[in-house]
């Protein structure tokens, strides 16, 4: 059952992380109530809009398609099923079905990770674009008979937070935290790729003593 599998995964996670069962740290507010949004159909879905001044739909579409291909479909942690599912320049639409590793801990001795599946949808328009991340699923590939876990069963407010909504629960909270971090990285990457977010390079002048 789902409860049994959650207990199994929890035990594995705590062993991998070397943490006591009762350990609890203060959590950043960004991961608490409202951080994971659910659409009208009851499914987890992250959505954000960006303004890209001075660029046409076609220019933004090309940049988003390039970003999706190079950084997601062919990204450093991608897995074989990752692909561009649809690309329509007339509609400014780029859809990616992404499979990648989501790492909870990565050291020379420990690779604690899951297969992470999601769909990413970019919709470009003149002067901006919208990005959506949905159909989020997870799979441990090193647990016998492991199930695919849907985000709705793991990272929503009701599943991942305590009753007072002030703390993350141990196992689903970990999935929630790393999922939000990955979503933020993907969204920021797309914004930078299109120029919605400009990278500021500060020049540091070092004076050498004569």
What topology does this entry show?
Elements: H1 2-17, E1 45-51, H2 57-73, E2 83-88, E3 93-106, E4 111-125, E5 128-139, E6 149-150, H3 157-160, H4 170-194
Antiparallel strand pairs: 1-5, 2-3, 3-4, 4-5, 5-6
Radius of gyration: 19 Å
Provide the helix percentage: 25-40%
Our measurement of the CA-to-CA distance between the termini, rounded to an integer number of angstroms, reads 73 Å
Succession of helices and strands: HEHEEEEEHH
What is the overall shape? Answer: globular
Global mean pLDDT = 85
The main pleated sheet reads as: 6 strands, antiparallel
Would you identify the regions where 5 or more consecutive residues have pLDDT less than 50?
10-24, 205-210
Proportion of strand residues: 25-35%
Report the count of strand segments: 6
Q: Given the helix and strand composition, which structural class is it?
A: alpha+beta
Q: Count of DSSP helices?
A: 4
């Amino acid at each position: 059952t789902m409860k049994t599998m959650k207990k199994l995964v929890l035990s594995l996670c705590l062993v991998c992380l070397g943490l006591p069962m009762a350990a609890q740290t203060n959590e950043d507010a960004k991961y608490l109530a409202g951080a994971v949004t659910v659409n009208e159909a009851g499914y987890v879905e992250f959505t954000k809009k960006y303004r890209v001044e001075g660029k046409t739909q076609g220019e933004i579409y090309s940049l988003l398609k390039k970003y999706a291909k190079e950084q997601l479909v062919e990204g450093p942690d991608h897995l074989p099923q990752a692909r561009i599912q649809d690309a329509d320049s007339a509609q400014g639409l780029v859809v990616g079905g992404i499979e990648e590793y989501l790492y909870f801990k990565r050291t020379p001795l420990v690779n604690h990770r899951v297969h992470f599946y999601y769909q990413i949808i970019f919709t470009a328009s003149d002067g901006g674009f919208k990005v959506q991340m949905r159909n989020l699923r997870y799979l441990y590939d090193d647990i016998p008979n492991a199930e695919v876990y849907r985000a709705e069963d793991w990272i929503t407010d009701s599943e991942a937070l305590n009753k007072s909504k002030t703390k993350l629960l141990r196992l689903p909270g970990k999935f929630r935290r790393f999922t939000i971090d990955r979503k933020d990285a993907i969204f920021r990457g797309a914004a930078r790729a299109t120029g919605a977010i400009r990278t500021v390079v500060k020049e540091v002048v070092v004076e050498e003593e004569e």
